[in-house]
């Protein structure tokens, strides 16, 4: 309940209600894009300044290694689960969405920790950056393998699959695109503007240290809470729209949208216990594993896996998982991390 009284969270709830009431309230796309870039830049700076204070150590290397492991395990596990009741393309798309991360969920968790005086490491911003791309690459590789397997038997119409038909979704396109080049995919993954901005801001923070932190405080600290609240208002409006587009999905998919994050967070907690990761970093690792992408991955999947149904993976991640994590998940993950890792 205390999390619900946070102004930023309340603005998200307000945005959802305004969207469900079909209000004409909206944030212009250009402003929404600016807000997301601001949050990433501020996050990168904060992480860089913290890294400049702490330096690189065994804790940093261990945590980053766990983050990379989760970035591979979560999408592969998600694909195996989803493949049981969805066609391969939709299963790969959902696996990528839940295998990647939500920067806004992560940033909201940082604000939650800071408001309670709970410490965490600046290198967790690097962990977030490392966890964004592997799921996309794995999903595209899975989709390419599906295309190759069905190329000979294809009759000219792509089979929509029982999962999509049961959900009332649109069938896949009739023409199947050529497999996406792995080299091109890797280039786009590692040169994505948002990710480059995050890493670049972190590098600036490391290089400038305490002096840079003092100079940038009005930008990266004083404005941060208000900008986050404004962005979460926009996310609330968008979440309401995605819920409307999702329609009435299978109860199994709705269950996965809630139970999946809990399972992924449990995997992260297990790694944190096994490797002795500190509570704050363990909590953030749980949040990263439990979050689902609704910006970077959907943008990539529309191009790389056009056979998948966007309303399905975007509706589940933004319409169900994001509100769940924001309202209930973050306090749960932080509480468990402090009770079991402290």
Automatic annotation (TrEMBL):
Pfam families (alphabetical): Sbt_1 (PF05982)
Record key words, sorted: Membrane, Transmembrane, Transmembrane helix
Signal peptide: none
Transmembrane segments: 6-23, 35-54, 60-79, 91-113, 125-144, 156-173, 193-210, 222-240, 252-276, 283-305, 311-336
Domain of life: Bacteria
Name the record gives this protein: Sodium-dependent bicarbonate transport family permease
Organism name: Malikia spinosa
């Amino acid at each position: 309940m205390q999390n619900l009284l946070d102004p930023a969270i309340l603005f998200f709830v307000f945005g959802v209600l305004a969207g469900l009431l079909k209000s004409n309230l909206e944030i212009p796309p250009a402003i929404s894009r600016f807000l997301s870039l601001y949050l990433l830049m501020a996050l990168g700076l904060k992480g860089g300044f913290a890294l400049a204070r702490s330096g690189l150590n065994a804790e940093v290397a261990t945590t980053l290694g766990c983050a990379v492991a989760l970035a591979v395990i979560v999408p592969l596990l998600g694909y195996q689960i989803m493949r049981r009741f969805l066609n391969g393309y939709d299963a790969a798309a959902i696996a990528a969405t839940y295998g990647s991360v939500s920067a806004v969920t992560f940033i909201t968790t940082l604000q939650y920790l800071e408001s309670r005086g709970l410490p965490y490491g600046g290198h967790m911003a690097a962990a977030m950056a490392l966890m964004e791309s592997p799921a996309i690459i794995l999903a595209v590789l899975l989709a390419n393998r599906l295309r190759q397997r069905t190329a000979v038997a294809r009759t000219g119409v792509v089979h929509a699959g029982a999962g999509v038909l049961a959900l009332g979704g649109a069938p896949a396109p009739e023409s199947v695109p050529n497999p996406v080049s792995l080299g091109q995919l890797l280039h786009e993954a590692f040169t994505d503007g948002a990710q480059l901005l995050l890493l670049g801001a972190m590098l600036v923070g490391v290089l400038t240290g305490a002096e840079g932190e003092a100079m940038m405080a009005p930008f990266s600290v004083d404005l941060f809470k208000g900008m986050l609240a404004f962005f979460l208002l926009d996310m609330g409006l968008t979440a309401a729209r995605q819920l409307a587009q999702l329609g009435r999905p299978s109860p199994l998919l709705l269950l996965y949208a809630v139970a999946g994050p809990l399972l992924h967070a449990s995997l992260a907690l297990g790694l944190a216990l096994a490797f002795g990761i500190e509570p704050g970093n363990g909590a953030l690792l749980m949040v990263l594993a439990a979050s689902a992408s609704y910006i970077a991955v959907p943008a990539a999947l529309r191009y790389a896996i056009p056979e998948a149904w966007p309303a399905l993976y975007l509706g589940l991640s933004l319409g169900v998982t994001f509100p769940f994590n924001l309202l209930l998940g973050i306090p749960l993950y932080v509480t468990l991390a402090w009770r079991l890792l402290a």
